Amino acid sequence: MSYLPKPKLHHPKLPTNAIGLTRRDYEGAISTLCAGCGHDSISAAIIQACFNLSIPPHRVAKLSGIGCSSKTPTYFLGAAHGFNSVHGRMPSVLTGAYLANRDLIYLGVSGDGDSASIGFGQFAHSIRRGVNMTYIVENNGVYGLTKGQFSATSDLGSVAKKGAVNTDQPIDLAAIAVQLGATFVARSFSGDKEQLVPLIEAALLHEGAAFLDVISPCVAFNNHPGSTKSYDYVREHNEALNRLDVMVPRETITASYRPGEVTEVTQHDGSVLRLRKLRTEHDPTNRASAMHHILERRAAGEIVTGLIYVEPEPTALHAHLGTVPQPLNALGDAELCPGVDALEKINAALR
Ligand SMILES: Cc1ncc(C[n+]2csc(CCOP(=O)(O)OP(=O)(O)O)c2C)c(N)n1
Ligand code: SF4
Ligand SMILES: [Mg+2]
Questions:
Q1: DSSP 7
Q2: Where's the Thiamine pyrophosphate enzyme TPP-binding domain (predicted)?
Q3: Which residue has a Cα nearest atom 2 of ligand 1?
Q4: Where do the H-state alpha helices sit in 165-322?
Q5: Which domains does the chain have, with CATH numbers?
Q6: Which residue in 50, 68, 145, 329 has the fewest CB atoms around it within 10 Å?
Q7: 8 Å CB contact between 58 and 80
C-alpha cells in the first residue's frame, strides 16, 4: 500500500501559528519510504517551514515527477493541491499551472534523476523563464526508486554499493541554476534541519525562480563508504557559507549581531534574510562570485551549502509576459471575449 492516512487526533495543547493551525495540520499521509531516507527529513523541513510562515495549506500547489523523492508530496501538506506528474515533466506542468493561476504558492519537488537526466531540459527552461516557484531537488546521487543506478549528479569516482566506480562527470544543479539566471539558489543537507528550514522559508517567500539542491542520502543504495552522497561523507565535506534567519514583514528583528557579522537582504515582499557569514567572504548577491565559489570549493573537495545566490529584486514570468494581474482561471466571459470591435482592431493591425 502506498497511501496510509494519519490519524487526525492530536494533543489539544499543541502550539499553534498565526492562523491557528498546529504543525499536524501541515502533515500528509504516513511515509512509506525506507526508514532513515533523507527525503523524509526534507518533508519534515517543508512542514516546519510552512507552519512557521503560517501559510494556509490550501494556498500551496505541490507538484512532482516520478521517483522516491517525487512521492514525498503525499507525506506533507495533505490539504494542498497536488499533482504527481510524469518522470521529468514536473517543471512544465508547474509552469502551466502557474500561468493559469498565479495566486497559488508553487512548490516543485523532484529528484536528481528526475531533474538532471530525463527532466534536465524541463528544469533548465523553467528556471531561465523565471517561473515563480520553489524548486527542490532531493539529491541522493542515485535512482533510488529503480534500485540504485548512478544518476547524473553522482560524483566522479563515487563508488556504488556493489563496487562499480562512476566515471562520468557530475552535473551540479546549483551551479547550473546560477548560470541559468535563477534568482535564488541554495544548497543544503537533509541532515541539517537548522540550515534547511530557513532556506525553504526564504525560497517560499521569494517571488521568482528559487532553486534548492538538498543532498538527501539514500540509505538503501548510496550510504556506504566510497559514496559521496552518504550521511558521513556530506557531514565531513560540508562547507556552510552562511546561516540564515528569515524575518517576515510583521516580525520585529530581535537578534543582534556585531557590525559586519550579518548581511541583510530585503526581499520583494518585505521579508528580511539575515545572513551570518561563516567561513568565507562570499557575497550572495553577486552571481559571478557565486559561480566561482561553487567551482572553487568543489575543486577543493568541499560541498558548498547555504544561500549561494539571491537577487533581491527578482522578476517572474508573469511580469515578463505582461499578463493581467488576476489569475487567468478567474477571468469571466467579458474579459475573455472583448467583443467584435476589439477583434476588428486586432485583425486590422495584422493586415
Ligand atoms: C519515462 C520514464 N522513464 C523511466 C522511468 C523509470 N524511473 C522511475 S523513477 C526513476 C529514477 C528516479 O530517480 P530520482 O529522480 O533520483 O528519484 P529517487 O528515487 O532517487 O528519489 C526512473 C528512471 C519512468 N518511470 N518513466
Ligand atoms: S530506496 Fe533510497 S531514496 Fe528510495 S525510499 Fe529507500 S532510502 Fe529513500
Ligand atoms: Mg535520486
A1: P
A2: 66-214
A3: 87
A4: 173-180, 193-205, 231-237, 287-299, 317-321
A5: 23-321 (3.40.50.970)
A6: 329
A7: yes
Beta partners for residue 143, in sequence order: 149
Question: At 41, phi and psi to the nearest 5?
Answer: -70, -35
Treating both helix axes as pointing N-terminal to C-terminal, what angle do 173-180 and 287-299 enclose, rounded to 10 degrees?
A: 160
Which regions of 123-282 does DSSP assign to beta strands (E)?
133-139, 142-143, 149-150, 184-189, 209-215, 238-240, 242-247, 262-266, 272-277
Give the strands of the sheet with 238-240, arranged side by side: 81-84, 60-64, 105-111, 133-139, 209-215, 184-189, 303-310, 238-240
Confidence of residue 174 (pLDDT cuts 50, 70, 90): very high
Sequence-separated (6 or more) residues with CB below 8 Å from residue 78: 6, 27, 28, 29, 57
Q: How far is the CA of 151 from the centre of ligand 3 (A)?
A: 7
Mutate to test the pocket of ligand 1, among 114, 171, 223 (most ligand atoms within 8 A of CB): 114
Q: For the whole model, what pTM was predicted? A: 0.94
85's torsion region: left (phi>0), alpha (psi -120 to 50) or beta?
A: beta
Ligand 3: distance of its center to the CA of 153 in Å?
9
pLDDT in tens, 113-172: 999 999 999 999 999 999 999 999 999 999 999 999 999 999 999 999 999 999 999 999
